[in-house]
From TrEMBL:
InterPro entries documented for this protein: Diverse_substr_monoxygenases, Luciferase-like_dom, Luciferase-like_sf, NTA_MOA
Protein name: Putative monooxygenase YxeK
NCBIfam families in the cross-refs: FMN_nitrolo
Molecular-function annotations in GO: monooxygenase activity; oxidoreductase activity, acting on paired donors, with incorporation or reduction of molecular oxygen
Family according to the record: Belongs to the NtaA/SnaA/DszA monooxygenase family.
Keywords: Flavoprotein, FMN, Monooxygenase, Oxidoreductase
Keyword Flavoprotein part of the UniProt annotation: yes
Amino acid sequence: MIAARRSRQLHLNAFLKPPGEFLAAWRHPNAVPDAGVNIRHLIELARTAERAHFDALFFADLVGVPFADQEVLRRVSVVNDSFEPTTLLAALSTATTRIGLIATASTTYNEPYHLARTFASLDHLSRGRAGWNLVTSLNDAEARNFGLAEHVEHEERYRRAAEFHEVVTGLWDSFDDDAFRYDQTSGIYFDDDKLHRLDHRGRYFSVTGPLNIPRSPQGRPVVVQAGSSETGRSLAAAVADVVFTQHPDAAAARAFYVDIKARAAAAGRDPDHVVVLPALSTIVGRTLTEAEDKADRLYALLDPRVALADLAYWLGGVDLSAYPLDGPLPQLPLSNQSRSAQRLIVERARARNLTIRELARGLARDDRTIVSTPEGVADHIQEWFETQAADGFNVIFPYLPETLDDFANLVIPHLQRRGLFRTSYQGRTLRENLGLPRPASRYARGRAGA
Ligand SMILES: Cc1cc2nc3c(=O)[nH]c(=O)nc-3n(C[C@H](O)[C@H](O)[C@H](O)COP(=O)(O)O)c2cc1C
């Protein structure tokens, strides 16, 4: 086990998926049904998370609508009506002052110059609070919006992602930090020896550069990676500042934690500079009965057809209609979507001997959701944190705003009383709050004295 450091800080990321992660969250009586495009409501959520001192808030993204079946599609909110995340975070950057702002963007269906520019802009707009969740995208429906019949192959996506990241970080270093003089007297706007052209010629990209924006407050926005397949882990260890992940239990989380930190060290990085945040979904009540009532009321809102479609989706877009619902999961081809998500579900089915129907219901409810009291949730957090299963958590909210309010008002004070979580922001930038150094420019190494 890696030795605990005295200064080790718990980190919490608020995974906002309005109106909630649960597929029928929009039907909850306290939900804001149009939450995905309701800017007033989104500002309220961001401010609640900031008042609670979360390190960051985070928005997932797809570049398409996944469910083909209209009977399913017309019943779900979370996949087909929400703002593009970087646009949304630009707005939220003006409504908040300290919380980090992390948006998902695809390396498969973007060009690196666009993406480097967008996130550098967001880092400037927010004065150093931007983060990029680097994803390779998930499904065929997304591919079909970009001239392809099916999604790019898993390993090929990751090869492109690695070069994409290399280009983006190179572009972020285009100008030295002190390049801009804005000297009205001499007429010199910036020092041209502090401008670097990238001249990248690679397998996937040819990018001359430079990027047309000064180096951003964090030097480089925080990079998040959330793929946990073998290739996903390698990329995370090489490039990620933060890793989002999910595990069935603390033992699996500890094994992953040790593995990622060791891979980071092998890649020549300080393992403390890779912040590992497993998912944590909670429904909290003042008493256990209250928590269970809340969960039951929520779960009753889901149409079983939606649960089944969601299961088929996360298994890799398979057709389950040929198999009896009360029978076992059939053998499946290796997913070209998320291999780690597929593996988790298959392992859960096998370990608990679940039928397809039970599995679909469990997935929709997110079996790992902790339905408990504030003390119960705080105990879980403390145990995972102190036994090096996690550096903190990516907190998932089954329905909003209530589960965020409950986490902020009921759970966080417990963590603070136990000395586990901050009572005020120590840093100004997201990197500072995450305990991460500001990266040097790749061009700094070559300079005398650097
Ligand atoms: C917490 C979490 C959030 C994710 N968010 C997104 C997302 O918004 N968009 C996306 O395309 N993929 C998302 N993913 C998928 C991963 O980034 C990754 O691309 C996928 O799991 C495939 O990688 P793998 O096969 O290495 O697991 C997310 C995964 C996790 C665990």
